[in-house]
C-alpha cells in the first residue's frame, strides 16, 4: 500500500492552461478573451487594436533568456513582445502545435 501511494504522489498533475503567460516557446493557442478587471481595460483595448482578438490563433515565437520575460508572440503575420504580466491577462485555450 505504501508503494502505491508513492507512485500516485509522483504522477504528473495536469493543470489547465488558461492564460498566455503559461505557454512556452513553440506553443500555440486560441484567444478566448481577457481578464475582467479595471487595470486590464486600457491594455485590452490596445491589444485588440494590434490584433489580439477572440478567436485569433497565437504562437509563442521566442522567450528572452534568462527568465523567459518578455515573450515574443506571433499574431497573424506580426510578432509582438509582451511582458508575462501582460500575457497573464489574455485568456486562451491551447491549440495543437502544428507547423504554420
UniProtKB/TrEMBL annotation:
GO terms for molecular function: transition metal ion binding. InterPro entries: Fe-transptr_FeoA-like, FeoA, FeoA_core_dom, Transcriptional_repressor_C. Residues 18-94 form the Ferrous iron transporter FeoA-like domain. Keywords: Iron. SUPFAM superfamilies: C-terminal domain of transcriptional repressors (SSF50037). This is FeoA domain protein. It comes from Oxalobacter formigenes OXCC13. The lineage of its organism: Bacteria, Pseudomonadati, Pseudomonadota, Betaproteobacteria, Burkholderiales.
